[in-house]
Amino acid sequence: MTTKRHTAVAVIGTGLALLLTACSGGSQAGGGGGGGDGDVTMSFWHNSTTGPGQAYWEETVAAFEEANPGVTIEIQSIQNEDMDGRLQTALNSGDAPDIFMARGGGKLADVVEAGQAQDLTELVDPEVEEAIGPSISAFSIDGSVYGMPTSVLPGGIFYSQELFADAGIESTPTTMDELVEAVDAVRETGVAPIALGAMDAWPAAHWYYFFALRLCSEETVNAAAESRTFDDECWVAAAEELAAFAAEEPFNEGFLTTSAQQGASSSAGLLANHQASMELMGAWNPGVIAGLTPDEQPLADLGWFPFPAVEGGAGDPAAMMGGVDGYSCFVEAPPECAEFLNFFMQQEHQEAYAEAFVTIPANVDAQSAVTDPALQDILASYNEAPYVSVWLDTMYGQNVGNALNQAIVDLLAGNTDPAGVVQAVNDAAARG
């Protein structure tokens, strides 16, 4: 068990090229475009409920169906915050979608261990595998492939260049002291310094993840993925640093009841409408923000900078953290599922994906389609990163990850202390 989890979540090597991160599944037997003798219907769950992202999947599915007569894919789009819970319920019931969203790491390792994901090792197109490169490791467990990455999603702080200029901030913060100074300067202008959608838990936990990345060594982060214990003092220190930062009151009023990505009042919406100057988030954020601006266009003054260095930390100050979105096949899915994964990973479809989602595609050949300035800055930082870790809730699996995320919300709400955060995580790990 620990071997599988460790293999799936190991910190990935240098640079972007080395980056990693209900509907019935009752497919009709037979082979559509896969060379079989009958029609095939597959179910497909994704998390793009509106706009260009939803349109992309509709167009891509239509193109695949046209190229594969006899194959039908039934699409169901599910709100991102609902996806993990609904999918887990469907997987446990045995009535899961044939094609489902996966985030790699420990979460996928748990699905594989439960016998719910299909081994795709011999089904990945060699040309696609070459174009993806080592990033496919986020979906690899004990040397076998159980999914296909669509985008790489490094995290950092997105900000409004206009609001920074209004506050007299001439350069982006590189240390926590400088970030606190920026918070104070923005507050003086009457704008919320940092948007946070803590109602969804994981955005609040991202702050802890990054403090841990700066304070814990690479070896400590990896060791915890295997041992499932969090005894190093850096874990408590990370919570202490977060508590101290939160005491500066950097977040928007009512952040504990603010959602992350749903509507103009969400944390992404606050940044999109210049009601907050910063947000810590992954590389999907430009696309989300674009859908929440008044004209539903990319935010013209959106910038990005890496999470600042933390004094005295054992982690490399240039290390990065992020995830990878992708898709897996249910264990009972027909061969056409793997064919669809290979199809949308081709360069032309990955370029369209990058444009629709305003994000970084996993296919390296398609990364020329990345034109958003903030995303280009992320790419540059990744090319220089000494190592990249996946999100901690992905790395440590759903049970531990959920406990960690909730513990951070409790910390910010004043319902626990730093030692209580680590205790909650250790208790969840002990329960399995």
From TrEMBL:
Q: Which UniProt keywords apply?
A: Signal
Q: What is the organism field in this record?
A: Georgenia alba
Where does the UniProt annotation place the signal sequence?
1-29
**So which domain of life are we looking at?**
Bacteria
InterPro entries, per the entry:
Bact_solute-bd_prot1, SBP
Could you list the residue ranges that cross the membrane? none
**Know the name of this protein?**
Extracellular solute-binding protein
Q: Pfam families annotated for this entry?
A: SBP_bac_1
